[in-house]
Amino acid sequence: MKPPLFDYLVARSSDEAVRLLSEHPGAMILAGGQSLIPAMNFRLASPATLIDINRIPDLSSIDIIDGNVRVGAAVRHRDLEQSDAAFAANPLLRAALHHVAHVPIRNRGTTVGSLCHADAAAEMPMILLLSGGWVTAAGPSGRREIAADEFFEFHMTTSRGEDEMIVSATFPALPAGAGHAFAEFARRKGDYAIAAVGAIIERGADGKVSAARLAACGIASRPVRLPDVEAAIVGTALSDADVALAGERAKEAVTAPDDNNATTAYRKHLLASLTRRVVREAADMTREG
Q1: Cα–Cα dist 114/80, whole Å
Q2: Whole-angstrom distance, CA of residue 159 vs CA of residue 287
Q3: Which of 27, 81, 164, 181 can pair with 281 through a Cys bridge, CB separation 3.0 to 4.6 Å?
Q4: Residue 203: CB atoms within 10 Å
Q5: Tens digit of each residue's pLDDT (9 = 90 or more) over 204-227
Q6: Is the domain defined by 7-52 classed in CATH 1.10.1060.10?
Q7: Domain edges within the chain
Q8: CATH numeric code, 179-288
Q9: The CATH number of domain 57-171 is 3.30.465.10
Q10: In what order do the strands lie in the sheet with 134-139?
Q11: This prediction's pTM
């Protein structure tokens, strides 16, 4: 199928893009187009106007600011995946991006575009949430930062205003000495996750877990933190029993109904297994550090 007719506009600055959004209600931003164009072809999206932001120079950079990774709205997945500076600050970016679709898609698709698309099974929204990151929105009233846990509202639904454009996303650096891990299960490599989990774990001088962050995607209507799992392991030495309890606690976060890919019961089983894996891997990394 082909998309419905639309007007095509090119913005040369972020301010111009915001102005065009205000002047053309219902317009959509075009960056990589790897999610938007297929949706238009299948008539799942029918914007009357597309605003191309690829000619805005300051949206194509990856910047390390105060140790955090700021990703412009036009940065391709592949560029972020291959950035050594981004990897040094937050290795979870590369670990997760390796699972995003396939290289040809990552060569065109943008990380910020994936965040705005907000598929509940997508990896990068979950990594932003796990890292405690945020997006920066530009609108007629200026710019504002939106924390990840406030940005993702539901499957393919965010808190971005209709007259706002997300100009960047910031992924905080991992704490010094923290261990990290990411694991995913999909039907085929490059598919959306049936379940995926990420972990960031810190240990104290006594060897016990002093802080933990875990998040998952593919198991609910949006990416979610796993606070019950975090509470189960903080203060422990991560014995086999502690890790097993973490897996059992993870099951409680699964709210996705049965679908063509998996039943709810199967997702619970997957999430428990993946959680045990990432907790062990992240903990082992803290010992290595």
Answers
A1: 13
A2: 39
A3: 181
A4: 21
A5: 999 999 999 999 999 999 999 999
A6: no
A7: 7-52, 57-171, 179-288
A8: 3.30.390.50
A9: yes
A10: 62-65, 68-72, 165-171, 134-139, 142-147
A11: 0.96
